[in-house]
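ok so for the tutorial part 2 we go from a plain amino acid sequence to predicted structure tokens. step 1 is just haveing the sequence, like this:
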Amino acid sequence: MEGTIGEIRLFAANFAPRDWSYCNGALIAISANTALFSILGTTYGGDGKVTFGLPNLAGRSAVGAGQGPGLSYYALGEMTGTNTTTLTISNLPPHTHTAGGNIVIPAYSEEGDSATPTNNVLASKGSMYTSQASDSSTKATPLNIQVGVTGGSIPINITQPSLGMNYIICMYGVFPSRS
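step 2 — the prediction. this is what the tokens look like for a chain of 179 residues:
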């Protein structure tokens, strides 16, 4: 399968053809492949003296190097992203939780005869439960309902729908001209 040295293709088989190798981040001896090293350098790893790295596209999607309008900058060879993330309070949009319900408390309009509420029913003081609009002694007390913490800090999968295939790189073939 003829190719241009450094060319990457998706290949649907479970082997890399002759003169091609998987894009799996393998370190290659410079002495065994000086033509490909002259194109890739150490962009994808290696020490630049004895070895250089092939791109690692195992489990990754390729993205164009550079920056488009409104997009992040990606350097050639930069690896970024993750398959999962854990949502925290700081990265959720501002929102509120509303709690509602009916609370029924039995109460009597007669005067109470105990100094403690323990094992007793609410009772009143004189005119405590009046329904007259002009009575300013009736006070509404806010009811605070605490909504408990929820969640288990389990990361969620953010992987886009994918199909497993092999990226291969041409190791030997036509040397690309720079012009």
